[in-house]
Amino acid sequence: MSAIGSGTNDQFVRSQYVASLDDQSRDWELVLRESHHRMKNTLTLLGASVRRDFARAGARDVSVALDRFERRIVAFGRLYQLLSDSDHLPAVSVEAFFESLCEALSRAVLEPAGIRCEAAIESGTLPMSQCHRLALMLTELVTNAAKHAFPSKNDALIRVEMASRDGAWLCTVADNGIGATGPLQGTGSRILEGLARSIHARLQGEAGQGGTRVTIVMPTAA
């Protein structure tokens, strides 16, 4: 009986291990899909801003347009680095990581579109895996707002907040745009929801005449 019980237990442990590996694989595939999705959308915005700049530039302004384009490419490289760093790094500074992310997003995506960015990031630490997934979600929300929230608005603003409250981190992206009919839609929303599940977070969204606001609520113990 002992041998049979032991064998059954070993089989159970192996099956649980395989299931865990499958979950990790699906999680990583999700992150990769979102990374590719994000880079594609960011490159689309970058290309549009370059075409706009060069269409406006006269012969004497080409060097200025080239200089702006170079700065955007550098910022895009920094953004890609932040979104693709290893998940196995130890805990990192929330303030340093997300301030760098907001700066890269502002230079690569928002400034070329004439959108201001404000960031209010509280200090603290989180595992790199959680920062990485929050960063992918935040970038999705910011670029989505940049693409859809401001069809004809001169004082466009996107504000990013990271705050620790009651055992959870709250990551909020708010804009003063036209107000989405649904803050989360399409392929991006499905990936967002999958990433949220991977860190045991939930999404809260609201939209109205004052703009759209989406908050990611992630338990500290996730």
Q: Which class best fits the helix and strand makeup?
A: alpha+beta
Overall average residue pLDDT: 76
CATH fold-level assignment: Heat Shock Protein 90
Q: How many structural domains are formed by the residues?
A: 1
Q: In angstroms, what is the radius of gyration?
A: 21 Å
How many β-strand runs? 7
What is the overall silhouette?
A: globular
How far apart lie the N and C ends? 40 Å
Would you identify the CATH H-level superfamily?
Histidine kinase-like ATPase, C-terminal domain
> Architecture, according to CATH?
2-Layer Sandwich
User: Percent helix among the residues?
Assistant: 55-70%
Q: Please report the number of helical segments.
A: 5
Q: In percent terms, what proportion of residues is strand?
A: 15-25%
Kindly provide the name of the CATH class.
Alpha Beta
Order of secondary-structure elements: HHEHEEHEEHEE
**Mind describing the biggest β-sheet?**
5 strands, mixed
Strand order in the sheet with the most strands: 2-4-5-7-6
Taking pLDDT < 50 over at least 5 consecutive residues as the criterion, the unreliable ranges are 1-22
Domain Histidine kinase/HSP90-like ATPase: 118-189
Domain Signal transduction histidine kinase subgroup 2 dimerisation and phosphoacceptor: 34-108
GO molecular function: kinase activity
Keywords: ATP-binding, Kinase, Nucleotide-binding, Phosphoprotein, Transferase
Written account of the structure:
This protein has 222 residues and is an alpha+beta fold. The chain has a single domain (2-219), classed as Heat Shock Protein 90 (2-Layer Sandwich). Helix content is 58%, strand content 19%. It contains five helices and seven strands; from the N terminus they run H-H-E-H-E-E-H-E-E-H-E-E. The strands form two sheets. A five-stranded mixed beta sheet has the order 2-4-5-7-6, covered by helices on one side. The chain has a two-stranded antiparallel ribbon with strand order 1-3. Helix 1 (2-56) crosses helix 5, helix 2 packs antiparallel against helix 3 (94-110) and helix 4 packs antiparallel against helix 5 (186-198). The longest helix is centred in the N-terminal third of the chain and has 55 residues, at 2-56. The radius of gyration is 21 Å and the shape is globular.
